Each structure stands twice: as structure tokens, then as C-alpha cells.
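ok trying this again, last paste got cut off
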Amino acid sequence: MTGPAILLLAAGASSRMRGRDKLMEEVAGRPLIAGRVSAARATGAPVVVTLPPRARAPARWQALDGSGAMLVDAAQAAEGMAASLTAGLAALPAACPGVLVMLADMPEITAADLSTLIDAFDGTAILRGATADGTPGHPVLFPRRDFPALAAITGDQGARGVLKTEADRVRLVPLPGRHALTDLDTPEDWAAWRADRL
């Protein structure tokens, strides 16, 4: 294996959506989660997706049937983002030189954005997606040397601690507009985003 893999974290509970599943919201005629996996697959990189147990989120699993991604049951997903991250890391190919961690609720990230990060990968720097004006965001590409630190994370903090500890190795990679910041967590977020796109 020569390049990084993409790890799509899609095991969250959509707890702020008041009964709706944000990853099943329709974007461009299909569920958001399906579009996110399609964008990741279009880069040519291996794609691993962490999901809640099938019984808790059958629609997500069904949306990704035949997607070509490796689907991983993050059995402890309810404990927070770290459990999803750990499950995904454990499923990566053995020789994987890096992992591009992608959040599933960011609808503006494109295959081109992901490729921009992958193309800049040097095996040493942590590459962090940013807005055009330099505000840090997502996705984030970690070299293999960071895998143990990522696997040691607990709770719902994500990789913030690793990014802080390794700040001198973090390099921002500008992506178009607000692609690196736009995440949609509430019905109001979705309504405002859709209104802006009309």
C-alpha cells in the first residue's frame, strides 16, 4: 500500500437532530452518508467507515450497501468519538502509511478536497484542512507515527489533544470557501445551509 487510507467517522448518534438522522438527510438526491463515501472512494484511496451497530442504525448500513467501502461496526460508539476512531484505526490495512480522518456530517467536502490533502502527504506532517482564509477545520491527515496516540484517545474529544501536542507538525491546507468548517448538527443548521444554496 502506497498512500493513506480515508477513515470516515459515521457512528455518532445525531443527538441534536431531535429524532432525525443527519447522515440520512438528503443532499443532491441521496443520503449525506452515501455522498460522503462516494467522495472518499473517488480519490482511489481505501475507505473505512465506522458505523453504529446495524440494529441501531440500519438505514446507514443499507445506504452503504455496495459502496465499496469497508464498513466497521463501532460497538462502543455510544461512548464517544474516540471509540469510533479506535475501531476505524484497528480496521486499517497493516501497511497503511497514514489516515485521513473525515467527519461524516460535512457536506461540502469534495473528492478534490480530499485529494488535495492526500497529494500533500509527506509521511511526517499532520495535514489539517482549513478555510481559504486559514481557519483550521477538517479533515485531518495523520501519518502512521500518530496512530498510537490516536488509539489512546478516550471519550468524545476526537483528536484535539493530538493536534495540540503535535502543534509544531501541523500544517494547514487551504480548501475552497468554508468547506473545512461546514458541519450540520441541528435541523436549523440544515435549514440555513439549504436556504443558502437555493
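PB: full thing came through this time. The domain at 5-196 is CATH 3.90.550.10 (Spore Coat Polysaccharide Biosynthesis Protein SpsA; Chain A).
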